[in-house]
């Protein structure tokens, strides 16, 4: 019994087909071999092109909010702030209040 990967059955069938009908299509044709291309010497290095960035432009350094500032409140004060802020996050509410309702940044 032949093993699982035995391909001799196909080889015999092809040989029989070639003997019965010697068709040039079935006969193996030699493949042309391409000559190796000579490599061109690297002259000057090509300039690196910068890609266009997608998205909105970056803010200038003066406008970036990068400094953290922390406050400590009592639980009662936090409850009052949460009540006034509603669904707005507390930090955004306090920042907006300081910018619009006080003259702290003028």
Query: What's the N-to-C terminus distance?
Result: 95 Å
User: Which value, in Å, is the CA radius of gyration?
Assistant: 39 Å
Helical amount: 25-40%
Percent range for β-strand residues: under 5%
Unreliable stretches (pLDDT < 50, length at least 5) are none
Total number of beta strands = 0
Average pLDDT, all residues:
80
Q: SSE order in H/E notation?
A: HHH
Major sheet = none
Note the total helix count: 3
State the secondary-structure class.
mainly alpha
Tell me, what's the shape? elongated
Task: Give an account of the 3D structure.
The structure is a single chain. The chain is an all-alpha fold. It has a domain at 71-106. The chain has helices at 8-20, 75-85, 90-100. It is elongated, with a radius of gyration of 39 Å. The mean pLDDT is 80.
Keywords for this structure?
single chain, 106 residues, mainly alpha, 3 helices
Layout of strands and helices, then pairs:
Elements: H1 8-20, H2 75-85, H3 90-100
Give a brief outline of the structure:
The protein has 106 residues and is mostly helical. The chain has a domain at 71-106.
